[in-house]
């Protein structure tokens, strides 16, 4: 599709358009009478209103709108993506969905992804089966010696373990951008067979689309993957981020020393549209694939944002993650890269101290062509209102102009306005909720555009009680800014920010393994240890509601991994290999984006050793076995705001996994069975060879009984009636089977 000109919604004659519009409005009025209004936050109402205004002004859907909003053209109709919370009446087959072209793609627990035609979005949205919907926020992205630092090399060698473990039979899903499907890093170590099971490029329009999602293009065979070569260019152009991240999690090394953590794992790649609804679909697609193939699934997310979600674990994305985690999916997520930025303020208001003021620092307009301004997002306490506004000062500190103070109680309608300061115009947008639909807390989002660097923008917030948190995050015109800018002092009465409470969405979710980054520690040729300190950029916790985050720390500074051979991003090559007539380079990146796939790979090693562990057990094992050193210091049981539980230790984690009783259902095929089942006195095994001497019997409360296997039989007559698991280590891997004692 050529975006050089606006893509118009409708080319019908005006009279026909009016008749169709009248019919649509009449239909909507009739259809919506019986359904209660769906709740949206003020932020979403403002964005929807702004989008519709832009469509009118532009005469249609332009490339800029497709980049800025979670917007898609499906069959020529513009759709907006949402995620929503459903109720007991929800049904995909509802006539209103069918009649108005509303598309529901994914549903996990109470959370669903939904695409709604723009023309359907009126002042009151009534959709059957939904309690609340949320405009899908746009999302932004965030080896060699590191393998030894994580102790994964000991797991690979099987030192002191029943066998070596390498992630075999586990699927690692990578949600990202910039995949090279042809890279030898994603082949097996003999470079004979690709380990990419399937890839879904949500940007590519040619199809075929995966069922039941109806958009994008799926590749599910080696021939299709090689023919495509890479994912298509998108908002990040021909990126390489996904290729680098996947190489860390499970790259084969391609004959070099830059082998990933779980180098025998298989991959599912999704190049997802940069919004929450699209990633919800990506998770469902990956889950469906893993379930169909009988594999455990680990999903890595090296991305996140601060102005999406609620940042306290109550967001719709967090609820979806919890539902997938309850189904056995393990999630690892980069914790954020704002540890070296004082972009946060925490203010406790009292009747004696009712005002906080601070200068909003702006990212350079010359450094990014998409720079729009700064987004100040503030969250308060339930039932305690506050107000926010700003003043414009010149370089001498004199006030030139100021906005009104907007309160969480009275700012019912979103504001899109400006103030004049001399010859300059400062644009701003305000939206607020007295009680956010998801957590009941008051919130304000204030976005300011000021291109005159000589002017100072001073935030002013007022309340009489309660604690309010503020974050200053850069906002781009394509809505994928992902870095903080400082709050700073500017004259009497102003305060500076800090780097605390800096964990982004969805890393703040309860069931995500949130990963901090540190510099790999390794010995030099002289034998001295270098590295090991926390990365300056690694975001600092805890979550703003006090819950400890991050959960764990992993190497994330100057990590060498694979580079996409299709990228148009400038990268310094540190090594290269030739494979199938192409040259593949290796480059060095830093970020919690690099630390997260380290942990995803280790989770795959754990599930390789014991596929019966729940996702919660995998997370607990990783945190419980974390190591301390001179850099971490002694970490309390509650955790560290920088290190979480400490430095990840793959070797200790796998050892503990082998000793841990897991009750997760897994369709792994066993080489043995027991009979009769149900049983009264004695269990018989279908094989005799390779059986260990001792079996563990576990009841449903987790009590363990050791029993001796003799001549392929096991006496259970002394057990009380009930359901039990028999747990063996056969061919160096945990295997379990359920039986009933009567």
Q: From the alpha carbons, calculate the radius of gyration and give it in angstroms.
A: 27 Å
The number of distinct structural domains comes to: 4
Q: Helix content range of the residues, please?
A: 10-25%
Strand order of the largest sheet: 8-7-9-6-10-11-24-27
Q: How many alpha or pi helices?
A: 13
In one word, what is the shape?
globular
CATH superfamily annotation of the largest domain: Peptidase S8/S53 domain
Might you state the CATH topology name of the largest domain? Rossmann fold
CATH architecture of the largest domain: 3-Layer(aba) Sandwich
CATH level 1 name of the largest domain: Alpha Beta
Secondary-structure-derived class: alpha+beta
State the end-to-end distance.
67 Å
Mean pLDDT comes to 88
Number of strands: 37
The biggest beta sheet reads: 8 strands, mixed
Query: Which strand-content bin applies to the residues?
Result: 25-35%
**pLDDT under 50 segments (min length 5)?**
1-34
Description:
The protein is an alpha+beta fold. It has 4 domains: 14-135, no CATH class; 144-336 and 507-659, Rossmann fold (3-Layer(aba) Sandwich), CATH 3.40.50; 344-488, Jelly Rolls (Sandwich); 674-741, Immunoglobulin-like. It is 19% helix and 29% strand. It has 13 helices and 37 strands. Strands 8-7-9-6-10-11-24-27 form an 8-stranded mixed beta sheet, with helices on both faces. The termini are far apart. The model is unreliable at 1-34 (pLDDT under 50).
